[in-house]
Amino acid sequence: MIEIFEIWIIIGMLLLIADLVIILRLIRGRGKNDKSLIFAEHQKQELLNLATGKPAPAYASMEIASYCKVSQSVRYDQLLKENIAKSIDMDSFEKKYLKGLKSRNITKKSEAALYLGVLGTEKARLALEKALENETNSTLKLYIANSLTDIGNKESLPILTNSLLNESRFYRNKVNMLISDFGEDFHRYLPEIINSQRIEFQELIVDFSSIYFSETLRNYLIQLIDSRKETIEQLNSLYGKAGVRQCINCVNSSPLLEMNRALCRYEGNVAADFSCRRYELLPVSVNSGTAHHQLVIKACDIVAEYYPKVFDQEQYLYADDTEIRNAAMRALANFKSTEKLDKLLGFLRQEDTARGAINGISTLIEKNRVYFNQVISAFLAETDCRVKKDLATILALRIEYFIMKLTRKNNDDAKKIISEIILLGKTSEVIDFLNKNRDINIENELIAIIKAAIIQSGGLKIDFAEYLNGRLTQKCGLIQVTEPIENEPLKRDEKLTRRLLILLVGSGLIIPIVYCIRHWSILFVMPFIDQLELFVMDFNYYIAYYAMALNMIYLVLLLFSYISVVRQERLWNIKDMSLLFKKRMLPSISIIAPAYNEEKTIIESANSLLNLKYPEYELIIVNDGSKDQTLNTLIRYYDLKRVDYLYDSRLDTKPVRGVYLNRSRPQLIVVDKINGGKADSLNVGINIANKEYVCGIDADSLLEDDALIKLASLTLDEETETPALGGNVLPINGCTIDRGQIAQKGLAESKLARFQTIEYIRSFMSGRLGWSYFNCLLIISGAFGLFRKERIINVGGYLTSSGKYKTDTVGEDMELVVRISRQMKEARRPFRILYAYNANCWTEVPEDIKTLKKQRYRWHRGLIEILTFHREMMFRPIYGRIGTVAMPYFYIFEMLGPLFEIQGYLMVILSVILGIFNVQIAIILFIAMVLMGTLVSVSSLLISEKNGKNFSRKELWILVFYATIENFGVRQYFSLWRFGGYINMFKKPVGWQKADRKGFAGKADEVTQ
Q1: Average pLDDT of each block of 10 consecutive residues along the chain (1009 residues)?
Q2: Using an 8 Å Cβ cutoff, are 483 and 465 in contact?
Q3: In degrees to the nearest 10, what's the CA dihedral of 310, 315, 319, 322?
Q4: Can you tell me the distance from the alpha carbon of 626 to that of 309, in angstroms, rounded to the nearest whole number?
Q5: Can you spell out the DSSP letters for 773-810?
Q6: Each residue of 75-96: b (16+ CB within 10 Å) or e?
Q7: Separation between Cα atoms, residue 827 and residue 394, nearest integer Å
Q8: 323 with 249: CB under 8 angstroms?
Q9: Which helix H or strand E contains 694, and what residues bound it?
């Protein structure tokens, strides 16, 4: 009979073999990846040669994937297609993918749809049309529609247009633009649908109108706008003009709810609940009132831009609908006429049209400088303070014009205008000009104007004292202010401290209580020393079983991580760039990079983020009151100017000190604010962001040029909403950086950084990817995360003392994900939070023990704050697997785990001291901690390097070595820090404790010079 000891030996041998197999597969797979890449490039080159008419030998095993890649680069004519077809068994591929189109597997069907679109045969087209008619999955329908568009046969138009009916906004928004690619063919098809009252067809025609111009489309847009105007007039009789105007743009107001229901009745549709929904994923019938309103706004924008004469009529300029009036004012800016400018100046007097008038006047004088003097005259003659301030906003953008006139003899008007602009609070451009000016005469004139203005309005002192350089501040008779410092004492949460103390005492008592229950019969009989030895022996087994349970969870997560990686890889391979760069295919993104004392790395990071492969994005760098030269480095390098930037502060934050732009780089926005922490900086960026999603990234991190598009492309693979997505984070230590780009990837020389590399890979591959498979992902790294902007705003933004919940946390990234998940679950709305294994962000990791210890203390503190803040979610079925599985896991294994681990390590040491540490315990601990721990690490490395090329073969051997030796003390030492982070919660909070940075591979100074 096999004894238990022998069973453990067998288990240990099996785990050792598994470790060796994974390691060999990892190293061998690296070589296979290199060969497959060479093979794919060879095939692509042969196809390119054929496509361009160069001779190339027929390749019997030519892959359809290579054909797809080349098709993105070369537009084939019929002859060249025939040449390429000779090298590819087209019939065989066609049969294979026609069969794949009938598969039940969505990934296989998506692949089949793509490749049939590439083949473009008549049989492929008919099969795709049939599949589109029968398919119900929106994501798969999108791939099929894209393939039909690529084939480009006008016979597919009826199928494509009918596929929009009763579909989600997600699908319609993208397919509308695909259909628009048919151009003239679709214009000829318009009579078939132009008289339809279906909102889906109306949206399609309006979208088409934005890229194709004709008299037919012009008349259609006018008719659509007029129908809205008539509807508003009818609603006026029900709600009154003031009521309708007040709520027309307020999505969540109950008057709008009633108005939308009235619109639905008017349009013959059925109304439903309009509150708290993801608008673009709902069927049309649910939302037709709001959909119609949004459609009219879009039609107004198109008419204002391309058919401005239409709006030069009183029925539009004085319409009851504010959106129509604002569009009419934008249209007036396209005329060269004094009369039109007078009209716009008149609209400044009405508050609800003032902003539209400001934009219209600014555009008009930008296009035609001849009207600038007319605006100046209006400003000088104006007596209404509000209107005068609006005019000052317009003139402030041309402040240099007035400043340069100060050097002339007759400069009284210029002085008066500059003085009034300053008194109205428009100081940004004057300050920026003075700081850069080298003309002493202009300087003296401006200083005199500023002094006089300060006498009239003492409130101006703060702006000039804070932002003028030291010499100019003294010349103005002011004392320079570097930054208003708010010394808010950090208070300890006494309730939280008491709870943590109870948990700490409980964790220390639970094993003794279990011991007493198990050995009650001998508890008062056996001598104390024998009792101690038995207790220590029991504890050693418990800690071994605990480690085994934890590693088994990791291995299960790794299994599903691998499944996710295979699916993601296949789906990524079928998303060619021509698809991803089609209009509206991917969401627009605002990248927000908080920066605090990042002067060494800020330019490399900014350059990296400004050169990403992505169709539509902006970069917002938020300087969080840095005490070094971070802000000035950005201003000098990008030639930025401080401007008065209008935005809505929907989230409460610390005060913003200034916004900096370079008109020739509209993609870049730099914000300077009072120090409030990373979360507060992200909230400021969200307020300023203009795009659909926001991407939070650390300013000391670099993205690979295709990282953002890989991450955002996951939104195409889900029918449900994706409110948050996370990317992969790797240490940049050891990489070579050239002008903000990773010129060469490499493994750090620092031993500490190498251990962290293994730790990062294990955490992201087993933890993030595995939990994402079960839709239980609760952590998206602050270094690289993508969030839906409206979702963040709806939950109150990142957690800060300035925000909705009046509390701070150092774990703002995880907390936001948990809060979004909580809200979505409570509202019973389906969603998925996703993780992209191949979207890489590279960040600098600490290379000294002291800094790393601070980081781990901070991480564990953040985890504790989040789990206690959202403790109501624990074990509650209403929150699904998040409440019943994920939250308990983080609570037991991540938050409280270190408390048990430290006790276990002490007991192992005590057993050695007592001389009772035997071979069986040693083998069990070795299996549970070393062999299983190594298996988790190398398996994570294998998944991370699947078809990847982050590390060379030599570096993989080094990482395998570190993955093994980290189990002999290093991981235990890191656990000690997590325990220290728990104990540190009983002390007075010390804030973020920002780590010092070395910079990227010593390149920072070279780039900024």
Answers
A1: 75 92 84 52 54 48 55 52 61 85 89 86 92 92 93 94 91 93 94 91 94 92 82 57 44 38 36 33 44 84 90 85 83 85 86 82 82 86 85 80 83 86 82 83 90 86 82 85 53 82 91 90 86 91 92 94 91 86 93 90 86 92 90 90 80 87 89 88 94 87 89 91 92 84 87 94 89 92 90 90 72 87 92 92 90 90 90 92 94 91 91 88 91 94 82 91 92 90 80 57 40
A2: no
A3: 20
A4: 50
A5: HTT------TTEEEEEHHHHHHTTSS--TTSTT----S
A6: ebeeebeebbeebbebeebbee
A7: 44
A8: yes
A9: strand 693-697
Q: Which residue has the tokens 């502060």?
A: 649
969 DSSP 8-state letter: I
Q: What are phi and psi of 582, to 5 degrees?
A: -70, 150
Torsion of CA 55, 58, 63, 66, to 10 degrees: 0
Question: Which residue has tokens 């400001």?
Answer: 358
- For residue 725, what are the β-bridge partners? 786, 834
How much is the pLDDT for 64?
A: 58
Encoded tokens for 153: 């046969």
* b (16+ CB within 10 A) / e for 485-506: eeeeeeeeeeeeeeebeebbee
What are residue 42's phi and psi, to 5 degrees?
-65, -45
Q: At what angle do helices 385-396 and 351-367 cross, to 10 degrees?
A: 30
DSSP class of residue 335 equals: S
- Name the pairing type of β-strands 736-738 and 741-744: antiparallel
Listed in order, strand segments (DSSP E) in 552-614 are 589-595
**Are 703 and 784 spatial neighbours (Cβ–Cβ below 8 Å)?**
yes
User: Which residues, 6+ apart, have CB-to-CB distance to 511 below 8 Å?
Assistant: 538, 539, 542, 900, 903
What is the Cα–Cα distance from 851 to 211, expressed in whole angstroms?
54
Residue 988: strand, helix, or coil: coil
Give the pTM: 0.83
What is residue 771's predicted lDDT score, i.e. its pLDDT? 93
| Terminal C-alpha separation, the chain | 76
**All structural domains of the chain with their residue ranges:** 4-165, 166-332, 398-482, 552-573+708-984
Angle at alpha carbon of residue 209, lines to 309 and 264, rounded to 5°: 95
Q: What is the CA radius of gyration of the chain?
A: 33
Backbone angles phi, psi at 986, to 5 degrees: -85, -10
CB atoms inside a 10 Å sphere around CB 578: 14
CB 297 within 8 A of CB 210: no
3-state helix, strand, coil in the chain (%, to 5): 65, 5, 30
Integer Cα distance of 300 and 839 in angstroms: 39
Cα atoms in the 13 Å half-sphere on the side-chain side of 499: 12
801 with 486: CB under 8 angstroms?
A: no
Q: In what order do the strands lie in the sheet with 784-788?
A: 641-643, 656-661, 668-673, 617-624, 589-595, 693-697, 784-788, 721-731, 831-843, 701-703
Is residue 474 a contact partner of residue 466, using CB atoms and an 8 Å limit?
Answer: no
User: How many other C-beta atoms lie within 10 A of the C-beta of residue 401?
Assistant: 14
Question: Which residues on neighbouring strands pair with residue 668, listed in sequence order?
Answer: 619
DSSP per-residue string spanning 374-387: HHHHHHHH---HHH
User: What is the secondary structure of 38-71 as a DSSP string?
Assistant: HHHHHHHHHHHHHHTT------TT--HHHHHHHH
Contact by Cβ (8 Å): 434, 443? yes
Place of tokens 């994005």: 617
**Tokens 């048990």 identify what position?**
900
pLDDT at 382: 85
How many whole angstroms separate alpha carbon 516 and alpha carbon 532?
12
Q: What is the DSSP letter of 735?
A: -
**82 Cβ contact list (under 8 Å, min separation 6):** none
556: enclosing H helix or E strand: helix 528-573
Pairing of strands 617-624, 641-643: unpaired
643 forms beta bridges with: 659
